[in-house]
Design goal:
By secondary structure, this protein is an alpha/beta fold. It is 35% helix and 21% strand. It has a domain at 18-250: P-loop containing nucleotide triphosphate hydrolases (Rossmann fold), CATH 3.40.50. Strands 6-7-8-3-9-10-11 form a 7-stranded mixed sheet, sandwiched between helices. A 4-stranded antiparallel sheet has the order 2-1-4-5, with helices on one face. A hairpin with a 2-residue loop joins strand 9 (231-236) and strand 10. Residues 21-262 form the ABC transporter domain.
Length: 336
């Protein structure tokens, strides 16, 4: 089959209870010089109230584009983003109200903060845009919740006067100042020293427990996913290829791509070295989109299971949004 025929879709209705934020059959395409890149190519994903979901995958797999689309920063080519059961509207007033509920925490706190603004000004920016009352009280409360106590010590400091962990806490405080329901955290600890990462992850878990916050954590680090997430969704070339409860997916991965990602962890008994780079999203291969790099296919195990031809030529259904463990893999289906 040609790539233009890849339209088979499973039922996208989520089975996650108390769904708060949802992607339904989401597609995001970019066109340049006549070439169409399918950055997000049919994703169903749900985030429940008070739940942390880790979205993992290599650079270029589409996870940041998916996160930006869930934030309303990109418009889907087709499919929809739903919040609180309602489709996201893209008018300026609707987006402003939505972004008070769903806040972004960026990877690089140094780049996120204006070096000419004090901590107070940085945290107060959102409340001012939304014309919230009692600005000083809101800022102090947000800093305290982000672990910068007493907040008075930090109000007049500039970013260069803070440590990396303190800067990341200021960024988190800026999001918390709007009392959001959801945080979308893009590689929230990637730029931090190892000694500080645990503190920031512990803070996010505390915010979930104390405030009922939900979080979508975008990361390439499966170790981070293990430490913080309730569920994990593994993304490859614009699609979720495996998802489920973090313990099930990371202790018994079914998709060869997830197995390869996990093999780089220190405790892994066997290292899987993937050949080549992820394919160009303007030229997604037919069959299983991972088959050109798949160690199961290359080793002959897929042939032994009688699915090698299917891996190369038969399209896989798009995974539904589900709380259950699932994988889009012919070999996993054949071997149980």
């Amino acid at each position: 089959m040609t790539e233009t025929t890849e339209t088979r879709t499973a039922d996208p209705v989520a089975t996650v209870s108390s769904t708060l934020l949802e992607a339904r059959d989401l597609h995001v395409e970019f066109t340049s010089r006549g070439r169409r890149a399918r950055a997000v190519d049919g994703v169903n994903l749900s985030l429940g109230a008070g739940e942390i979901v880790a979205l993992v995958g290599e650079s270029g797999c589409g996870k940041t584009t998916l996160a930006r689309t869930l934030l309303g920063l990109e418009r889907p080519t087709s499919g929809e983003v739903r919040y609180g059961g309602q489709p996201l509207k893209y008018g300026s007033k609707a987006l402003k109200a939505y972004r008070r509920q769903v806040q972004l925490v960026l990877q690089d706190p140094t780049g996120s903060l204006n070096p000419r603004q004090t901590v107070y000004e940085a945290v107060a920016e959102g409340p001012r845009i939304h014309r919230m009352p009692d600005e000083a009280e809101v800022v102090n409360s947000a800093l305290a919740r982000a672990g910068l106590r007493p907040p008075e010590r930090f109000l007049l400091r500039y970013p260069h006067e803070l440590s990396g962990g303190q800067r990341q806490r200021v960024v988190i405080a800026g999001a918390l100042a709007l009392n959001p329901k959801v945080l979308v955290a893009d590689e929230p600890v990637a730029s931090l020293d190892a000694s500080v990462r645990g503190e920031i992850l512990a803070l996010m878990l505390k915010l979930r427990d104390d405030l009922g916050l939900s979080a979508l954590v975008v990361t390439h680090d499966l170790g981070l996913a293990w430490n913080i997430a309730d569920r994990v969704a593994v993304m490859y070339l614009g699609r979720i290829v495996e998802s489920g409860p973090v313990e099930q997916v990371l202790t018994a991965p079914r998709h060869p791509y997830t197995q390869a990602l996990l093999s780089v962890l220190p405790e892994s008994p066997e290292r899987v070295v993937l050949t080549g780079e992820p394919p160009d999203p303007t030229r997604i291969p037919g069959g299983c989109r991972f088959h050109a790099r798949c160690q199961i296919l290359a080793s002959g195990k897929a042939a032994e299971a009688g699915v090698d031809a299917r891996c190369r030529g038969e399209l896989l259904d798009i995974l539904p949004a589900s709380a259950l463990s699932q994988a889009a893999c012919h070999y996993a289906d054949a071997t149980g």
